[in-house]
């Protein structure tokens, strides 16, 4: 018997996610723990609906316990996103299996790829290709292709494969005692705009939901019911356009010094972003104007969002500060009882628990509260401030 861990966004939870959860339930008899992003996502955007609604979806689809991936890690690059999720699961003290989806569906191949990335030869070649002007992802892929094989390098062409490899790397670096099981991604590819059968990508579902179109075929009935309930209450879909003027205002008054402590900022990229801001009339124009072969769209979006929210490099370097519970079922409550004796980080069962955190943990929790206050402005029915202090743990 064992406990499985899954790292996810569930933005929103669809049939592919439900399949992953069902597979994890088969592998792990003692429960499934999900570490899930909060209200801001790794693509530097807003979650379609809040973490509480998505935690309810996860519980309805088979998760037993849902924890929040702290905000600095949720909006970070793949490596830090993976590290935050892995560290959260490992800190519970009883998760022994990491389950994740991938395009290749081959755990051994993903382990080989992680081994290739850990080699000094790959690291040296990656730095050489970066100096030639390639972005980090492109440089790393070419380095693996040069030092190892096309088969291993091709693994790094697919986004879920990349995240799977990053999970393995994070676990090895942190000494997390996990076994790894990958589940082949079924149906539509990541970000695909054409569903396959009953499976659609989360990005397709977000676009459909934002336009008011039906998504019933592609989501579990329980998740559809929660999506409808949230919409009826005016709590979805979140719309980043409602925050765009505020972000542009922040950027127009910003100086290079405001970016010094922001993750992913190096080599004067902040100057390129600020130059782009001066000629831009939209965020998309900022991203387009600042992008180069070396500086990807994704990196620029993350830098802008992190600067706007107040995420710092120090927060990532300090690691996960606490284990915040978003939701649990009966089995999950049993796991929480167990965690009271095994957890290596403070457990936050209610907002008031944050008062006892060390200074660094309080800073991350405060940042999360302020970020949610901004998120609440993006909803069809604007929610007030301080909802992170009042919204309770979710139960099925």
Q: What can be said about this structure in brief?
A:
This protein is an alpha/beta fold. The protein contains 19 helices and 7 strands.
Largest sheet: 7 strands, mixed
Into which percentage range does the β-strand content fall?
A: 5-15%
Helix content: 40-55%
Q: Uncertain runs with pLDDT below 50, 5 residues or more?
A: none
Distance between the termini: 24 Å
Keywords, please?
single chain, 396 residues, alpha/beta, 7-stranded mixed β-sheet, 19 helices, 7 strands, 10% strand, globular
Structural account:
The structure is a single chain. The chain is α/β, with parallel strands linked by helices and 396 residues long. Helices cover 51% and strands 10% of the residues. It is built from 19 helices and 7 strands. Strands 5-4-1-2-3-6-7 form a 7-stranded mixed β-sheet, sandwiched between helices. Helix 2 packs antiparallel against helix 11, helix 5 packs across helix 9 and helix 6 packs across helix 7. The longest helix has 17 residues. The two termini are 24 Å apart. The model has no long low-confidence stretch (mean pLDDT 94).
Task: Write the topology of this structure.
Layout: E1 3-8, H1 15-27, E2 31-37, H2 51-60, E3 65-69, H3 71-74, H4 78-92, E4 97-102, H5 107-117, H6 120-131, H7 136-147, H8 150-155, H9 159-174, E5 179-184, H10 202-210, H11 221-232, H12 241-253, H13 269-278, H14 283-290, H15 297-309, H16 313-317, E6 323-328, H17 330-342, E7 347-348, H18 359-375, H19 387-390
Parallel strand pairs: 1-2, 1-4, 2-3, 4-5, 6-7
Antiparallel strand pairs: 3-6
Helix pairs in contact: 2-11, 4-9, 5-9, 6-7, 13-14
